[in-house]
Design a protein that fits this description.
The complex is a heterodimer of chains A (411) and B (262). Chain A is built from three helices and 21 strands. Chain A has 411 residues and is mostly beta strands. Chain A has a single domain, classed as Porin (Beta Barrel), CATH 2.40.160.10. In chain A, the strands form two sheets. Chain A has an 18-stranded antiparallel beta barrel. In chain A, strands 8-12-11 form a three-stranded mixed beta sheet, with no helix packed on it. Chain A is globular, with a radius of gyration of 22 Å. Chain A starts with a helix and ends with a strand. Chain B is an alpha+beta fold. Chain B has one domain: outer membrane lipoprotein receptor (LolB), chain A (Clam). Chain B has five helices and 13 strands. Chain B has a 13-stranded antiparallel beta sheet. In chain B, a hairpin with a 5-residue loop joins strand 12 and strand 13. The radius of gyration of chain B is 20 Å and the shape is globular. The chains are: A mainly beta (411), B alpha+beta (262). Chains A and B meet through strand 1, strand 13, strand 14 and strand 15 of A and loops of B.
């Protein structure tokens, strides 16, 4: 974490822009999550027990804008304090283009907790253990250039520093691991080279009242693949991130008295185009259909159907080592989101669920959030996993059900 | 006999021509209240007061631009300063009189723009006693209007117009509006529920001329049944600023220009 240089940079900029508009905001937050179905693998009873302070510094002097968002937190489970730079960037804005350089959070695509053309890193541990939703997204260290020539808008993101997804920690979460007995593991992230620099492009415009977008990504899978040192009797595993290219498109607009979303992406697994390597994901086509509607005042329903279709399935089946769970050719998910606001939108009851028609597993996430004042809110919710197989997406988390509590003072 | 009839009609005609119809009163009111200027900007302070006296504040900058005639399309851009948990959020509405709005919300914490479903224009705006329609206007043709009387409200000569929704899916059965004859602004509104009981009142508490356009700078909506009320104050109001069309796009929803939101 390049924290010190960023602070130095901030101070420098602060000095240089003494006449700039500066604002400081943030929050103090307590966040706790207790196991409800089993103790953690390491014997603990909590998935999460932490307090954090977030500071957000905004400074702007046209055409520049500086933004820093940093967290200081104390984790009671690991008994350690740490700092985390969540975002830190400088914007430059010109009439027809702009640029953002530094650590930044990006969200692309139309899915609600389903990501086809959102190529940026996620923190699933945060989400599964009941941190506020914003912690699902991790920043990327890179440059984003926006161009707005009129006939369409473009966003180009260049990421020289690879950031993988963050998956649940094996000490806190029960998960499926087909090679659990092999503990010698090495993580190999793509080296920082020009060739490994990730490129993401999004072009979007309005077409007859619909928001249309095209996407392109050239980089890596953010979920690691596993390479054993010896195929028959492995003693060491190397976790690496296979090369990936994605071509995608999306369309969203009003229809059927609500908002309809369509999104698709072709995932080209560049290192396993024939689909013969069982240790790497095969190429896939991913598809999403979403519908959102307000049924009555302050009550909204959102449903999504999502499918992942594996190409070269015959090759995959042929090459799968014995003893490994076999994935289906078509992996499907259905999500439901219900949101009801009450008491002048100070009380929010919400429900989010994933359910897989193909695998049978689910994740249920009910939540109640109340704003006591304009500055203080609290949320109480649950994460319930289950069904399916012991290796399926949510089924493997069966023993990780938890109840979480978030309390925040915002200023 | 026919001639006599014609004479009678001709005699009556001037009266008919000079008497303003309820629809005309409402059209003029709409022009003065919701469409003045080519564009508009205000810092809006919204105070939500519960029956028990607890106050919550919503502070935002609201920008509006008209596209076409009075009663036509409008675009709104709203940037939130307060409360803290929605600070820096922006909200954009493309309003069409004859069909549902297009609405987009930008959530800065995850840098996400999302379209939001917007079927019910009678639902509450940011939890206040004002509905989306109270903020951006209701299509005149959605109600039948009749002038029920003319009377003085304070020092102002007003038309009192009774507006009855043509469809039953509205929260009120009829509304009475006191429209100032001089400015065409609504000075008071009374909403009656399905049982015919008064349940909501709107009052224009302060009117100022801004660039010689009379503007309601303080208004209150009271819910008499729940005891909840919302007071709205416009702090900095301005018209005809030449807001660019490009402001109302995803680019600026994500990065609202300082000059427009301050």
């Amino acid at each position: 974490m390049q924290f010190a240089p960023c602070i130095a940079l901030a101070l420098l900029l602060y000095a240089a822009t003494a006449s700039a508009d500066i604002s400081l905001h943030g929050f103090l937050q307590g966040n706790y999550s207790a196991d409800t179905s089993a103790k953690n693998p390491d014997g603990g009873d909590f998935k999460l027990a932490e307090e954090r302070l977030q500071l957000k510094l905004d400074a702007s002097k046209e055409p520049f804008h500086l933004f820093l968002k940093a967290d200081a937190f104390y984790d009671h489970i690991d008994r350690k304090a740490d700092l985390e730079l969540r975002e830190g960037y400088i914007d430059y804005t010109a009439p027809n283009w702009d640029m953002r350089a530094g650590r930044q959070i990006l969200t692309w695509g139309l899915g609600d907790l389903i990501f086809i053309n959102d190529f940026f890193p996620k923190d699933y541990e945060s989400f599964f253990s009941g941190r506020p939703l914003e912690y699902l997204k991790l920043g990327v260290d890179g440059i984003k250039i926006g161009a707005y020539p009129g006939f369409a808008s473009f966003e180009l993101v260049i990421i020289p520093f690879f950031e993988p997804n963050k998956f649940p920690d094996a000490k806190r979460f029960w998960m499926f691991d087909p090679m659990a007995s092999i503990t010698d593991r090495e993580k190999k992230e793509p080296a920082v080279t020009l060739k490994n620099t990730e490129i993401a492009l999004r072009a979007y415009r309005d077409i007859a009242g619909y928001d249309a977008a095209l996407y392109y990504y050239r980089g890596f899978f953010r979920q690691p693949s596993v390479m054993p040192d010896k195929p028959m009797m492995p003693t060491k595993l190397t976790l690496f991130y296979p090369k990936l290219t994605v071509y995608g498109a999306s369309l969203q607009g009003k229809a059927l008295d609500g908002v309809v979303s369509l999104e698709a992406g072709y995932y080209d697994a560049r290192e396993d185009r024939s689909g013969t390597d069982p240790m790497m994901p095969n190429s896939q086509t991913r598809f999403l259909l979403g519908y959102q509607r307000q049924l009555w005042e302050d009550f909204t329903v959102g449903v999504q159907y999502y499918a992942e279709y594996m190409h070269d399935y015959a090759e995959y089946k042929k090459n799968l080592p014995p003893g490994f769970p076999q994935e289906r050719r078509l992996h499907e998910l259905v999500t439901v989101r219900l949101t009801q606001f009450l008491m002048h939108q100070t009380l929010r009851l919400s429900w989010f669920s994933f359910w897989s028609p193909s695998d049978g597993d689910y994740l249920l996430n009910p939540e109640v959030k109340y704003n006591f004042t304009d500055h203080i809110w609290a949320a109480l919710g649950g994460m319930v996993f289950g069904n399916g197989n012991k290796w399926s997406q949510f089924g493997q988390f069966d023993k990780n059900d938890n109840v979480y509590f978030q309390l925040r003072y915002e200023f | 006999m026919k001639r006599l009839m014609l004479l009678l009609v001709l005699l009556l005609l001037p009266l008919e021509v000079f008497a303003i119809t309820a629809d005309e009163v409402m059209k003029k009111s709409q022009a003065a209240f919701l469409y003045p200027g080519k564009d508009f900007k205000a810092r809006v302070m919204m105070k939500l007061v519960s029956k028990g006296g607890q106050e919550r504040v919503r502070e935002m900058t609201m920008l509006r631009k008209n596209f076409g005639e009075t009663g036509g399309d409008q675009k709104y851009f709203i940037y939130f300063f307060q409360p803290a948990d929605v600070k820096d959020m922006t909200f954009m509405v493309y309003k069409y009189p004859k069909k549902d709005d297009d609405r987009w919300l930008f959530v800065p914490a995850i840098s996400m723009v999302r379209r939001i479903a917007a079927q019910d224009k009678r639902s509450s705006f940011v939890g206040s006693d004002f509905t989306y329609e109270d903020v951006s206007g209701r299509d005149i043709e959605d109600d039948t209007h009749a002038i029920s009387k003319e009377e003085k409200l304070g020092t102002k000569d007003c038309y009192v117009v009774k507006s009855t929704p043509k469809t039953a899916d509205v929260d009120y059965s009829y509304k009475l509006s006191w429209i100032d004859k001089a400015t065409s602004l609504p000075i008071k509104e009374e909403y009656y529920d399905k049982r015919g009981d008064l349940y909501k009142t709107f009052t224009a508490d302060e009117i100022k001329d801004v660039k010689s356009l009379p503007t309601i700078t303080k208004r209150t909506m009271k819910n008499l049944q729940s005891g909840h009320m919302t007071e709205v104050t416009y702090i900095k109001v301005d018209y005809n600023l030449n807001i660019e069309d490009s402001l109302f796009t995803e680019r600026f929803l994500k990065q609202p220009p300082k000059k427009w939101i301050d």
